[in-house]
UniProtKB/TrEMBL annotation:
Keywords: Oxidoreductase
Organism: Roseitalea porphyridii
Protein name: SDR family oxidoreductase
Entry's Gene Ontology molecular function annotations: oxidoreductase activity
Record Gene3D superfamilies: NAD(P)-binding Rossmann-like Domain
Family matches, as PANTHER family: OXIDOREDUCTASE, SHORT-CHAIN DEHYDROGENASE/REDUCTASE FAMILY (AFU_ORTHOLOGUE AFUA_5G02870) (PTHR43639), SHORT-CHAIN DEHYDROGENASE_REDUCTASE FAMILY PROTEIN (PTHR43639:SF1)
Amino acid sequence: MEGLKDKTVLVTGASKGMGAAVARTIGRHGANVIAHYNSDRAGAEEAVADLPDDRKMLIRADMHDNGEAARLWAEALAWRGRIDVFVNNAAVMLETAPIDASDEQWDDVWGETMQVNVLAPARLMRDAVRHFRDNGGGIVISFSSWAGQRGSTNPGAFAYGASKAAIKALTQSVALNYAQQGVLAYVIAPGLIATQMSETFLRSQGGKEKIFKTLAMGEWGDPQEVANVVAFLASGQSRYLSGATLDVNGASYIR
């Protein structure tokens, strides 16, 4: 991944799961890493622990607030005066709004999910595209989900699937409209990966044994495998793949 050396990369949600694996991996390949977190600073610190101080920066921001997202971008950009790659990973999955939920519960879950998973990331993506367009190009890598491609199998988390479909469409729109300005944009659509979010999903669906039987490989994926895909895309070695959605689900959902 020689193309990552000395690139400056902003990773949202870098304190755990796939975001932490991404921050660790791109740092290992020579990138300068801006690790965003909300409440888990220790997790973000651990993700970039192996990097020298001059190649890492930690920034706290709460994606429930668009102003916080704007501040995150401004502080990240000020660190080195340039960002080369934006990895749009931070998200929530709330499972408490099935069809029969109260109107209040439904509206609360949909409102929070769309704010954290779509509106704040969209604000960051807009800032990224403006910066890339005016500075010779750059790369956006957004995390969708197989739930955003096939629909959610969890009736309490319809908002999550819808939000991941929205971020996919936004990222593809960026790829389509700004390709000639050097802006590349890719979508990662993970399936069941070994993260805290997936643990929650498994509990809601009857547990590991039941769900693993439905997976083609009989097991969930390793966050490191997802991080390896992100590192490849961030390296800029496959420009003509821009706009693509990469399904990382162990052949359990094939389109």
